[in-house]
Amino acid sequence: MNLAAVASDLFSLTPDEFTAARNAHAADAKGGGDKVLAEQIRRLPKPSSSAWVVNMLVRHRAEQIDGVVELGASLRTAQENLDAKQLRSLSVQRSRLIAAVAQQGRELAQQFGHAASDGAVREVEQTLQAAMADAWAASAVKSGCLLRALSSDGVEPADLAGAVAIPLDVSARPSPADGMPQVRDIRSRSKRGEPDAKAKEARARALMEAQRALDQAERGLEDAASALDDVRNRIAKLAPEREKLLRELDGLEERIGELGTGIAAIDRETRVLERDRRNAERAADDARSEVNEARDRLGGLR
Predict the structure, then answer these.
(1) Is 202 found in the same domain as 96?
(2) Fewer beta carbons under 10 A from the terminal one: N or C of the chain?
(3) Are residues 82 and 154 in the same domain?
(4) Is residue 260 in a domain?
(5) Is there a contact between 152 and 129 (Cβ–Cβ < 8 Å)?
(6) CA–CA separation, 76 and 203 (whole Å)
(7) Of residues 216, 219, 210, 214, the one with CA closest to residue 82
């Protein structure tokens, strides 16, 4: 048993399984008399949610991770050669590949019973971006023992401090010929005094800055388009309800018209009846007077 083998086993587990398995490995090492290894195992931290997703991708979607690393090497070559056309084409592929692999990571997490939050997925995308920009970061990702998300601007080396459970052997760091970001070679040549080194470095920086600005603008456009689609969908969902209410309103207006006609007819009939009532009251008064007069005459005759 060694630390690398234990780490490889632990980082293939789900977050729920990690702590118990780590404690069991530490106990085994201690029981075997290797207290130093037991302490090293005990200190292995649980990876962050995004790092766990990346580790799962490395183990279960290795071909996709290889694709990310290979595309990153092509991008760095295009940056070194200052090939703007190739860089634009590869950058489009990069955005699509990163989004697709991150989505596979979300789905993979669900298969293992753990939902990856939107924030975790964004960190997965950030880590994949770093793996494309920096071959040393790519090595950290491919170790499958990542502890936290990585980030890289493509100019400065990615910060790998505390990022991998088993620190990578610096002596094994990929050389420029193996695909390290060539901007670092430009700096070393500048120090040796090559006439065009500074100009090439400045142009490379400007090219990368412009590409990052374009990527950011494209992401903003995608977000705006998504928001627009959302609003359009909400409007589309409201349209049938509006039509329904309009039909109900038309029905109510028709009913109101019918009721108004009925009320008018009742009012007309009421006026006729009121006239008849007044005539009947006058006739009743006249008849009452005649009855009284007749009674008076009858009383006089008796």
Answers:
(1) yes
(2) C
(3) yes
(4) no
(5) yes
(6) 14
(7) 210
**How deeply is 48 buried, as exposed, middle or buried, from its count of CB atoms within 10 A (0-12, 13-18, 19+)?**
middle
User: Number of structural domains, the chain?
Assistant: 2
| Same domain, yes or no: 18 and 146 | no
pLDDT in tens, 161-197: 889 988 765 444 444 434 433 333 323 333 334 445 5
Alpha helices in the chain (DSSP H): 3-10, 15-31, 35-42, 49-60, 62-80, 84-111, 118-133, 135-142, 183-192, 197-301
Helix (H, G, I), strand (E, B) or coil at 47: coil
Residue numbers of the domain that contains 219: 55-240
The pair of structure tokens assigned to 173 is 């760091």
Which one is predicted more confidently, 129 or 205?
A: 129
89 token code pair:
């084409």
All residues at 6 or more sequence positions from 124 whose CB lies less than 8 Å from its CB, including other chains: 50, 53, 54, 57, 101, 102, 105, 106, 116, 149
296 CB neighbour count, 10 Å cutoff: 9
Residues in the chain: 302
Long-range contacts of the stretch 93-100 (C-beta < 8 A, 24+): 94/129, 94/132, 95/215, 95/218, 95/219, 97/67, 97/68, 97/71, 98/68, 98/125, 98/128, 98/129, 98/132, 99/125, 100/64
Neighbours of 209 (CB within 10 A): 13
Strand partners, 164: 146
